[in-house]
Amino acid sequence: MLWLKALHIFFVVAWFVGLFYLPRLFVYHVDVVEQSAHQRFCVMERRLYTMTTIGMIGTWIFGLATLMAAPEIYMKSGWLHAKLLLVVLLSGYHGWLKTRLRAFAEQRNSKSERFYRVMNEVPTVLLLAIIILVVVKPF
Ligand code: HEM
User: Fold this and answer.
1) Atom 16 in ligand 1: which residue has the minimum CA distance?
2) Which residue in 59, 68, 114, 120 is deepest, having the highest Cβ count within 10 Å?
3) Ligand 1, closest atom to CA 86?
4) Ligand 1 centroid – CA 60 distance (Å)
5) What is the pLDDT of residue 1?
6) Exposed, middle or buried by CB within 10 Å (0-12, 13-18, 19+), for 108?
7) pLDDT digits (tens, 9 = 90+) for 27-79
């Protein structure tokens, strides 16, 4: 159980590296006009997205494995249900990043630098809320 939890947290960290840094790359990518620089950004974004997806899959696998080690306790915990709801939102945000990555690759991004700066805060807020739920367990 503790091994599963340790691996769970390892993949959470790997997932968040990309959730934090991909939108930041988009912020810098918005104003790029030179083709070679544009191509370099596309490669960085694609590779980072792959690593981020591995982080997400590992988080789900080891999170669910931790849950299945003691389902009778966890399934009765309100904080875990709230956490899972936020993790589903986070996974949706991950999918949205993929749609933006495609838009940049096809040179049809229409969003501003400011838009990506604001969206960059979404994983921060969700991370804080999830950490409070798992550590404080308020309900
Ligand atoms: C993907 C679905 C997820 C599932 C099914 C899941 C499930 C779990 C379970 C059952 C525990 C053990 C809780 C305990 O014994 O106190 C746990 C621990 C933890 N989870 Fe998740 N989790 C998921 C995603 C996440 C995410 C996205 C984060 C961070 C944003 C996260 C952060 C943590 C942390 C920090 C702990 C350690 C808490 C502690 O031991 O005090 N989890 N998770």
Assistant:
1) 134
2) 59
3) 27
4) 9
5) 87
6) exposed
7) 999 999 999 999 999 999 999 999 999 999 999 999 999 999 999 999 999 99
Residue 115 structure tokens: 């838009």
List the residue whose alpha carbon is closest to atom 19 of ligand 1: 134
- How remote is the CA of residue 2 from the centroid of ligand 1, in Å? 12
Distance CA 16, CA 18 (A): 5
How remote is the CA of residue 29 from the centroid of ligand 1, in Å?
A: 33
Q: Judge residue 123's burial from the number of C-beta atoms within 10 Å of its C-beta, 0-12 exposed, 13-18 middle, 19 or more buried.
A: buried
Report whether residue 82 contacts ligand 1, using a CB cutoff of 6 Å.
Answer: no
Report pLDDT digits (tens) over 4-29: 999 999 999 999 999 999 999 999 99
| Mean of per-residue pLDDT scores for the chain | 97
